[in-house]
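Hi support team,

I've been running sequence recovery on a batch of backbones for a student project. Most finish fine, but this one hangs at about 90% for roughly twenty minutes before it completes. I'm not sure whether the input is malformed or the queue is just slow. I've pasted the structure tokens below so you can try to reproduce it. Let me know if you need the job ID as well.

Thanks,
M.K.
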């Protein structure tokens, strides 16, 4: 495994709403996880910061890198572009 620089934009392929969470995420509200095809022709699985009712296959999304308040790590997710 290694680092690879890629585009920060992609297209949503599919998604699901997680409402039965593992213990480490129990403090989070229900959340959306999706698979995004980035322009470099590979897929990334990540949280999607959007209302699932507003999502559709092919929706353009962009990468966000952020440190969540109260968490001790940097994470990433996608938002509608």
């Amino acid at each position: 495994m290694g680092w690879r620089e890629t585009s920060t934009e992609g297209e949503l392929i599919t998604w699901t709403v997680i409402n039965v969470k593992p213990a480490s995420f129990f403090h989070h509200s229900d959340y959306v996880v999706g698979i995004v095809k980035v322009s470099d022709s590979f897929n990334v699985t990540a949280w999607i910061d959007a209302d699932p009712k507003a999502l559709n296959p092919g929706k353009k999304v962009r990468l966000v890198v952020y440190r969540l308040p109260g968490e001790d790590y940097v994470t990433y997710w996608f938002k509608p572009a």
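--
Follow-up from support: It reproduced on our side and the slowdown came from queue contention, not your input. Residues 10 and 38 are 4 Å apart (CA to CA). No action needed from you.
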